[in-house]
Amino acid sequence: MTRAIRSFLAATEIDTRLAGMIGALAVIWIGFNFLSGGLFLSSRNLWNLSVQSSSIAIMATGMVLIIVSRNIDLSVGSLLGFLGYTMAMVQAMWIPTALGLGFNQPYTWIVALAVGIVLGALIGAFQGFVISYGGVPAFIVTLGGFLVWRGLIFWYAQGQTIAPMDATYQLIGGGPAGSLGFTASWIVAILASLAIGYSVIMSGRRRRAYGFPVRPTWAVVTVIAAGCVAVLGAVWVANNYFWPPALATQFARANGITEPPGGLQIPTGIAYPVLLLIGVTLAMNYLATRRKFGRYVYSIGGNPDAAELGGINVRRTIVGTYAVMGILVAISAGVQTARLNAAVTNLGVQNELDVIAAAVIGGTSFSGGIGTITGAVLGAIVMQSLRSGMVLLRVDSPTQDIVVGVVLVTAVGLDAFARRRSAR
Fold it and tell me: Which domain holds residue 106?
């Protein structure tokens, strides 16, 4: 049986780490679904799970590059809160009041996001500069950032809740209005399925052209089919989550629609935060595997001295990784503030631990040079699945932290054990 599984994984070229992650995720989902009486695998919970995982997963894709380069960033939670507050103040106070231009201008959400992304990139680059050119350990620099950015929230907002957000900006957070709906979701699913088939086939052709070994035909068909089934299944679940009855009734009245006896059922579809996550994952995966910057990061993580002797500008590359992390934190801050329709003082609290845990559970090694973007996204989903399942079972927050801590230590322990075995 074990030999057959190994042969299957070798033929399909599926990463054993990712396969193990998917298996663990399946066990978690089935277990929580049984314990919750079928609530966990309901369309409503899975849709909420996808939205809740998006913010952490977006930041986890950047944390992979940070950890791969043998560094760490403890400031992402505080930075998220600071950037979220800044973007909230841009649209709720500075543009309407300071500039006297009023609320809900067509450009407000664009300006708010642009300010957050630029500021996030500058702060990230500054921290990376202090680490690489100043010689200060990453742990100390980002620990300082953890304190500074959280303190600045109170310094310029006095701990007030900033609300409401711009109407268009709110769509970034998801919800019934912030989703694609039935038809657009199926169109995205079909296009994604075609893209999966095209990429797998073209990858095989390129490898054959250069004389590299290729997957057997049955393995190609299996990989394409599995990818398409996953995409179509996810969209089916999203379209089976309907708007809340009260909101559907309000929509029907506003549009002069007569409600049927059982009530109006409006499919929600794929949420915008999930689309953002997909876009970020594709972009980060391309950056990590297809661009020189990504190859430089992995080379630095594998052997910093050899990378520098090989002509790689190690310092500049480290600055770049932290700048990318700052941009991703800004995007996550946009998702969280839009979803809450406010910026609150505890925004981003403990997010740094969740992001690091997601990257490590996803297979990123603290020894450097090892880690995948896809694995980090799966790690974020595992983290949120654990929390979501425990919430359904009414497990208290301290116990949730204990469980997540045990899972994190176990993941790191298994990684260390695997590295020791491979070194023998």
Answer: 43-179+271-423
